[in-house]
Structure formats: structure tokens, C-alpha cells
Amino acid sequence: MTPPPYMGRTFPETTSHYLTTGTDVLDSAGVEAALKAVTSKGYGPVAGAQLVLLCNEREADLISTWRRGLPSREATADEVAADANAVGPTAKYDFVLSASAPAYLTDETIVGRQAPSDFNGLPVFDSYGEAFVIKSELIPAGYVIAAATGGPNSEGNPIAIRQHPNAAYQGFREIPGAEQYPLINSYCQRSFGVGARHRGAAAVLQVTEDATYTAPTFAV
User: Fold this and answer.
1) What is the pTM assigned to this prediction?
2) Secondary structure class of 61 (helix, strand, coil)
3) pLDDT value, residue 92
4) How confident is the model over 41-46, as a mean pLDDT?
5) 74-88, 95-109, 115-129: which range is least confident on average?
6) What's the CA gap between 142 and 200, in Å, rounded?
7) Which among 28, 62, 81, 142 has the fewest CB atoms less than 10 Å away?
8) pLDDT in tens, 108-140
9) What does DSSP say about strands 131-135 and 143-149: parallel, antiparallel, or unpaired?
10) Angle at 26 between CA 142 and CA 39, to 5 degrees
């Protein structure tokens, strides 16, 4: 599906928001590419939405080591073979702890807005550039999601909740049992689904040396 043009910029039919790092270690270049995949389509702060990075604790810990102007990882053997002075990708931004961080000492000054302690009920770990970093064990290790969100029920969100068009079948329903004794054999019912609303508002990055993205598997 070819993304629609944005601000005079067009995108090829081969455009994909399923990205890989090309290395076995997460680096700033991969995360910045995932964020750029979203913002280049017109989503994010320019549209009044917040950028978020959803990741596992393992990836969040790596992001916490990034500093602007410094390599975000060591150079790979192939990079060193091509250039003995090669270094890993240089971070464009500083990792900055959110307002919920434990007390810490620093001789540096934060310029700009510090990330809040939570975003719509989700605890914010830190920020990288314009994105809030939210860590969760629901995100498989080795994957990072970059997304733009306008908040709960925003029409600009990448995913929308679907429910029955008939209002009588929407929401949490209590269905009674026998008319004489409504609590006997009664049960509760809630039905809903999800669907893509704005495909360009999110991108997923897999940490892998492979050029081809592979979807994660989940234990059931």
C-alpha cells in the first residue's frame, strides 16, 4: 500500500514500516529511522500528536546510555574492516530521564521540556528527542515500536477500536438469565476488535542482522 503524499513529498510502493537495524545491537540510527518513518508521513508533533517509543526493558536500558554526539554502539567487525577508524552511529539527541526518575546528581542542565512521569496512564521512563520512551514487558525483547498518538480515542491514532454498529450490542453488557430469577444463569459480554486507522502513524524496528523483518512470536 503506497503511502499518500505529504507536503509535496511522495513515497515509493516499496515503502515499509517494518524495519531492521542490520546489527545485533540496538543503536540510535535504527530508532531515529523508525521515528522518521512516522514523522515523514505527517504524523507526530507537526500534527499535534505525541511520539512514543514502546520497548522492552532491555532496549530501554540501551537507549538510556545514548548521548548526543557520541556513538550509540561500538562499530561492527565489518565496519572496522572497511574503515579502521569507524565508530558506531552517533546519537542525535540526549537520553533524558522523566520527571518520575529517582533522585540523581548531575552537573548538566536540562534544556527544554522534561518528559512527564506518565502519559495517559502509562509510566514514562525517559525521552529521546521528541519521543517518550515507555518500557513494557508486553513488548518482546528485540523490538521497538515508534508511534504517534493523539491520546485515547483520537482519530489520528494508528489503531482504532471497532465495535458493533448497533448501540445495543456495544460496551459491557449484563445479560440476565430466567425472567423470574435474573441472576441465575446470567452472564456478562463485551465484544470489540481493532483495526489499522493510520498505517503511517507507526513503525516497528527489529534488532537483527537480517535485512528482512520477522514478526515476533508470543507464547499462549
Assistant:
1) 0.86
2) helix
3) 96
4) 94
5) 95-109
6) 22
7) 81
8) 777 777 888 999 999 999 999 999 999 999 999
9) unpaired
10) 95
Annotate 59-70 with b (16+ C-beta within 10 A) or e (fewer). Answer: bbebbeebeeee
Contact 144, 32 (CB under 8 A): no
DSSP, collapsed to helix, strand or coil, labels residue 47 as: helix
What's the burial of 145, exposed, middle or buried (CB within 10 Å: 0-12/13-18/19+)? middle
Distance CA 194, CA 31 (A): 26
How far apart (Å, rounded) are the C-alpha atoms in residues 133 and 125? Answer: 6
Tell me which residue has cell 522518521.
Answer: 36
Question: Which residue has 514487558 as its cell numbers?
Answer: 137
Question: How many Å apart are CA 32 and CA 201, to the nearest integer?
Answer: 15
Q: Where are the domains of the chain?
A: 18-161+198-206
* φ/ψ bin of 153: left (φ > 0), alpha (ψ from -120 to 50), beta (otherwise): left
Contact present, 72 and 28 (Cβ < 8 Å): yes
Task: Name the grid cell of 125.
Answer: 521512563
Rounded Cα gap, residues 89 and 71, in angstroms:
5
Helix (H) or strand (E) run with residue 82 in it = helix 77-82
| pLDDT at res. 220 | 66
